[in-house]
Amino acid sequence: MTKREPITAAELMAQLSSDPDWVAKREREEKERNAREAEHRAAERPLVEELRAAGYKVDSAWDFVNTKDAYPKALPILLNHLGRAYPAPVREGIARAMAVPQSRFAWHDLLRHYRNEKSDRVKDGLAVAIAAAAHSGVLDELIALAKDQKHGTSRLLLLRALARFTDSKARAALMELGADPDLSEEAQVILKKLEREGRRPSNK
Questions:
Q1: Which of 9, 43, 108, 168 is most deeply buried (CB count within 10 A of its CB)?
Q2: What distance in Å separates the CA atoms of residue 142 and residue 170, rounded to the nearest whole number?
Q3: Domain count, the chain
């Protein structure tokens, strides 16, 4: 029996594109996605207008995510909008835009939003912001948050923050979290990396 040659991506796309049902489904999904994006842009307009008035040429809070430029004047605006009734993708973008060390001023507000958040994707965004804003003065709160199992797997995003601290409490917490069913794998990876590199994390 002759072995069939593996199909290339281009050949697969050509086959799918010749299928009317697949084409119709793809067009329908694209239309739905565009409609959702338009809805989110419309919902986010008050935030975008305020950010532009402050001098930031953005179309969404997501435009701040991963940028190398600092945007300190935008952070209080983002915080002010964080608790508003935006769609989850918009609120996630706001939370992730606040994932910079300069958000330290908003630490307790970020914690409050995190503890009350019901959307998994927004909660993950808030965890990233909390991790970025964490500093030595709030280490005990960070450890308590990471240990609180009611916050589920979003706590994974807090572990890298613990790795930054020289305080023995942070290392002890990572070791303890190595037995947490939600966090064990990531905690062990971090501990092994720190041991392998033979360094103590910084406590910025």
A1: 43
A2: 9
A3: 2
Give the DSSP letter string of 58-118.
-SSGGGGTT-SS--TTHHHHHHHHHTS---HHHHHHHHHHT-SGGGGGGHHHHHHHHHH--
Same domain membership, residue 119 and residue 41: yes
Tell me: do 43 and 89 sit in the same domain: yes
pTM for the predicted model, two decimal places? 0.80
110: exposed, middle or buried (C-beta count within 10 Å: 0-12, 13-18, 19+)? buried
For residues 72 and 101, membership in a common domain is answered with: yes
Is residue 54 situated within a structural domain? yes
pLDDT at 109: 97
In a shared domain, residues 80 and 54: yes
Q: What is the C-alpha separation between 79 and 105, in angstroms, rounded?
A: 10
Coil/strand/helix, residue 159:
helix
